[in-house]
């Protein structure tokens, strides 16, 4: 055992930031397959039984919905209505984070979770700079080379631009929906 | 504690492959700064006190030296002389691996180490396919955008082409020699 090493449990926990988003098919509050894959991988391969050695930081970035398509059935008559729309969106995000926070608590792993608005790749870069995690874990839809050209991936951008080590967890083939944009 | 979870210690250890090479300034058997940084990061941030939960797989790829510059002081009079050159090169590689294996043993972490010849990025891809580690850790010289264009990096190639999650550990600025090619 390495209990006498400098990497012992007296050291502050390893802080792992995990980027999470909602399922594009099922919507809020369901996490996307790639978010769940990234979370499960972190638990099974890294944290393992050493719950006290790690702290998980869940970041959910909401993309501002300029068209308001998410609220097609709402009527906007005053600025307050838009306010309430933003509020609803935020509540959805909180319910998404609940999934990850509850699971972490059940396993006795310290965690924090928060929501930001903006372009996911830029916001994640900013948050990494501010929060300084030891490592960033992000899921990836595992696009083929053809789709990659048009869609690009947040994860590829992050590997290049983020200061801390980044782990991209690709989905297994059998978890991928027919259309990889659905997630 | 997560002892009751499915990620408990009864699960097989997480197998982490670490690509290691020799220092380009000091030569064999000294590991490069980026190899040591990748190794130390793995111990401190991932393995921590959980030695039994991990197995480290050290892969050293030797680039075939067609010019024989490493053996400027040797005289080649027969095919056997080249044989002995290859042998010497291999012994140097073994001494490099000794550094990592001895450190792992001192910490009670299971490990394996081996040498392959060829183009590092291609060989690492092949070995990942064969060995199927849970994760690959590689160091990076942390080249600036200018040098990156000309030099390229093994780590960028691996992130794109390797099947398992890849972590690239960049060197801290204060560990970088003046010329980033020196390592």
UniProtKB/TrEMBL annotation, chains A, B:
Residue ranges constituting the UspA domain according to the UniProt record: 32-170
InterPro entries associated with the record: At3g01520-like_plant, Rossmann-like_a/b/a_fold, Universal_stress_UspA, UspA
GO MF terms, alphabetically ordered: AMP binding
Alphabetical list of PANTHER family matching this protein: ADENINE NUCLEOTIDE ALPHA HYDROLASES-LIKE SUPERFAMILY PROTEIN (PTHR47710)
Protein name: Universal stress protein
Organism of this sequence: Musa troglodytarum (fe'i banana)
């Amino acid at each position: 055992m390495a209990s006498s090493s400098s990497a012992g449990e007296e050291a502050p926990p390893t802080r792992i930031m995990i980027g999470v988003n909602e399922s594009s098919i099922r919507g809020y509050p369901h996490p996307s397959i790639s978010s769940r894959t990234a979370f499960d991988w972190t638990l099974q391969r890294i944290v393992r039984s050493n719950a006290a050695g790690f702290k998980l930081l869940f970041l959910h970035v909401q993309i501002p919905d300029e068209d308001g398509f998410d609220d097609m059935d709402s009527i906007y008559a005053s600025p307050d209505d838009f306010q309430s729309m933003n509020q609803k969106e935020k509540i959805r995000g909180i319910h998404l984070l609940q999934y990850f926070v509850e699971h972490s608590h059940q396993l006795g792993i310290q965690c924090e979770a928060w929501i930001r608005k903006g372009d996911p790749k830029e916001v994640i870069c900013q948050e990494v700079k501010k929060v300084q995690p030891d490592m960033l874990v992000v899921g990836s839809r595992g696009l083929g080379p053809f789709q990659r050209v048009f869609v690009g991936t947040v994860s590829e951008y992050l590997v290049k631009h983020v200061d801390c080590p980044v782990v991209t967890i690709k989905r297994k083939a059998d978890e991928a929906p027919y259309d990889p944009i659905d997630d």
